Amino acid sequence: MKIIEVETAKGDKLYGCLYGEKFKDVCVIVTNGTGGNIFENNFLQIVGEVLEANGISFIYAHNSGAFQMIDTPSKDGRRKGVTFECFDECLDDLQAFVDFAKIQGYKHIILGGHSYGANKVVFYLSQNQNEPIEKFILISPTDTTRLKESEKISAEQFMPIAEKFDKENKLDEIIPILFDGYNFFTARAFFDFMQNKNAKNLPVYSKNKDFSQLRKIKQRGLFVMGENDSFAFGDTQKHLNVINANSGRKDNITKMIQKTGHTFRGKEFELAQIILDFIVEK
Question: What is the pTM of this model?
């Protein structure tokens, strides 16, 4: 495994982990979910190792929402990490890794994302239909609208503070309590997480469903989740079926892995095999 550095169009640095550097045929790029990173997402390390063992290159591509906080400032002075992230930055983030793969001369590029990263892949592909991406993979895809409803208590605690910071012109100040007991947000990042319509592109449970981004994607997809993924709210197969039914193609593949959850603990190799089978299928 090799650490790589890419530069976005804005001049920001992002890091990734490249498995199978010597191979130049197929490159699979998978980007992280909220706070995800190569050090804590063991299942993607195993995916990388399995693909490398089968002659396939794999890049775990950190986006602007990797880790909780990254101290190194971006070119415009803003810090990175979930605490500071705005969803639309994913377009530049993913483009930087796709460009890296193109420069390296890979013949086949497959793009995937885990959790909130899946929403970013859907948004990116809907906006970049002419990029040479052959297939896409959504790993543990989430309906961010339903997720936000389940975090209503945190949202109600955060909103008055965020609105106060907004009035005081302190949008980039960190709200001093954990959101849902998990991560910090600046007021700007909190507003973006709650209100950005571009991120609400897998509305499995929403009353007013808008799958238009997903329907724009021309590539064939693999949609895979763990049976016990809490973001499927008790019916993982239905969750996957709704996404598939609202996609732009009818030959996608859905896979539910038994007895595991959002990060596939204990079933990492099964996930890796499913991804490998999808890549090498004729």
Answer: 0.95
